[in-house]
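ok so I'm stuck.
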Amino acid sequence: MVPHLWFNQEAKEAAQYYTSIFPDSKVTNITTIRNTPSGDSDVVSFHIAGYSFMAINGGPHFQFNPSISFFINFDSSTDENARENLDLVWEELSQGGTPLMPLQEYPFSKRYGWLKDKYGLTWQLMLTNPDDEERPFIVPSLMYVQDVARKAEEASDFYLSVFSESSRGNIVRYPAGIEQDKEGTLMFTDFMLKKQWFAAMDSAQSHNFKFNEAISLLVRCKNQEEIDYYWEMLSSDPKAEQCGWLRDRYGVSWQIWLEVMGEMMANGTTEQLNRLTKKFLQMKKFNIEKLIEAYQGK
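replied:
not stuck anymore, here's the structure
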């Protein structure tokens, strides 16, 4: 699964910015798809510290918010300069951005901060406890608020049932006496889907945001059987189905994507890409056979 970031027109610029901050980071591919509802759009694939992202210039339709953020875990057991490196990344990401929780010590971490960067994307930087079980450097985090508040446990249970090679990690529940957040609901949990870590949090506090299409989770499928399975399991709103996109029962957006689609977009001629784009814009759930036929001009 790959986090997919929706920008207005800054996808390439943002990818170059993020990859300049972290080691083992690079832009791996830029493809322009033409004549979309948003005009010509750049689709950018890039790695941040080896973790895969995609981004698109899709116009001003969706804006990032803290409902989906990204933990960056600095582990002193594997990096003797973890605290210093955390502070350096915080300084870089803070330029033009806004702190949401100041960088300081908290009960759960000796060094932690949550910020919104200049593009609106939100990051949680944490100095992890070396005695805890190791987690990846980057972990996407979903926060359940408004009409799905107090459903983080239910939602993560659902995702664990959908994806194979999955398991629950840590669970931290709200204690008694916290205003609005019900005792026993999930303050934090992490879980692994297809050997990939995610986190989830509940918050019944007042928030003016919720899940939207600005950040979606792209599932790469090998065949039509996998596409059909994930589409049936995850889609809950027929109105949100378009071009391989769907919305689940909790409001999270997903893209059920073909691995071969990425290969065609990366390697196709202008004519092949135009035919492919015209065909997939007509679809809701992707049909591999018809997309390959369009790409080949049949």
